[in-house]
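Bench notes, bay 3.
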Amino acid sequence: MEEMEVPTEGLHEQINEKAGEAFEKKEMKWVLFVAISTALMAVFAAIGGLTAGHYSDEAMIKQIKASDQWAFFQAKGIKADIRTLQPTAFPNSTPADSLKKEQALIMEKAKSYEEESEA
């Protein structure tokens, strides 16, 4: 029995021949240029996306640090207020005035983290 020839085999060969002829005639070189330029644009877009993600993560970390500093600021304020209201309850502890000074330094640090996060 004879094998039947698959009709697509002949088409495949013809397509390859025509593509080779077109490439030799410089008709297909622009397609190669478009493919390469598209690949390069995809690479640059990927690099840009990764860089943007990095800066977004850094901003989030700075915002978290600022939030932590504000919580520390509030804790120092509460301690200072308690020591002002009941100075005899904590005789050997840090005075309220010292806590207020520390609180001011903490506030400056928290504001600097917020500014870095916004930048």
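Next record in the batch:
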Amino acid sequence: MTSAHAPPPPKQLGRFEVGAKIGGGGMATIYLGRRTRGNGTEQVVALKVIRDELANDPQFAAMFVDEAKILARLKHPNVIRTLEYGITGHHRYIAMELLSGRTFADVWDLLVHRGERVPFELAAWICARVAEGLHSAHELVDAKGTPLGVIHRDVNPSNVFLTHAGEVKLIDFGLAKARMRVSRSQDGIVKGKIPYLAPEQAQGRPIDRRTDVYALGATLWEAATMKRLFKRETDVATLKAIRDAHVPDVRELVPGFPDALWAIIDKALQREADARFASADAMRAALDEFVKDFAKDAGTIKEQLAQLVSELFPGQEQKLEEWARAATSVRVPKHTMPPPAPVPIASSSLLEDVASSPDVQERPSAGTISARPAELQAMREAETGEAPATRAEAGPSAPGEEAIAARPSDAHRAKRVWLSVLVVVIVCAVIASIAASR
């Protein structure tokens, strides 16, 4: 669908007036939202709205609901905060806090371009805060106290947000795995950005919280060296590097690299999960201990991060604030607004609709890998020049992201085609028989 024919955005979602579009991806569009509180003050948020063409697709709806359910339970300063989930008309949305800053990937890219690096203690502190957020997700329980088994599955620098206030926020739980999920991956399906997959994740083996520890270790390795760890020229080569799991000793790449920090990175990036930190909290404790011993003034690390973001992107905070005010300044006349109809997540009819479908499964999205073990084997065979048994083709991806999307089931498609042909042949034969009898 071209932008010229794209439907206009909704004017009201739940309690929020909808402002300007501020982003989007393969599944949803992000808008500014605003509401006036009872005391007269205004609240500006980010509204994540499932795309219209996907709104009635039960698989995408299930993924969207799953993310909302997980985010609604997460209450941690190092995880993006969810304010409301609901349905207005046919629009499904999540209202989240509006963050001012840039991703860790943006900071990393600009520093590499300038030939500079993230200070060791700052890289460790940022990853320690991500580990805190991860641990809070891993420890989530339901109303009865039963662990939900949440795994982020997509920890990487583009999902770590650094605010102008020096805060660290883990974002995007769209690929998170949890016991409470309505949508389910087929056996052997793996998800996550390719260069940050753990070996077991890339091979389609069972994963647990230590898979996120590995991805955070890869993020820390890159932050410490200002180099890419497993990223190669092709996706196949990247997967091979992940499979080999060879992690260069940072001390051989960066003169004067602290032994204590390398020990943490090395432990997080062990090929076998049993050899890694048992939890994100254990990794957090080790990183905080390093920062306390290494930094000259560990108490000012947050201020250092705020200063770094402001220096790299001067004037951006003020521009973002001014833009947000301008983007939400035009009020929609009340008579044109549909009556607000937010649906609390605990009683969402969407949850009931999706939960009644036992066959809901996930679909791959841009920036993810989704392939069965046989397809991963085909990639490996391609490395040696052998003819693969099956093929995996690259799907569309957002700029700067990598994607491999498993081809839809050829067997099912072929079966449907042959059934259609058979029906047509039978109908034609009946018509011919009737004509001959006349």
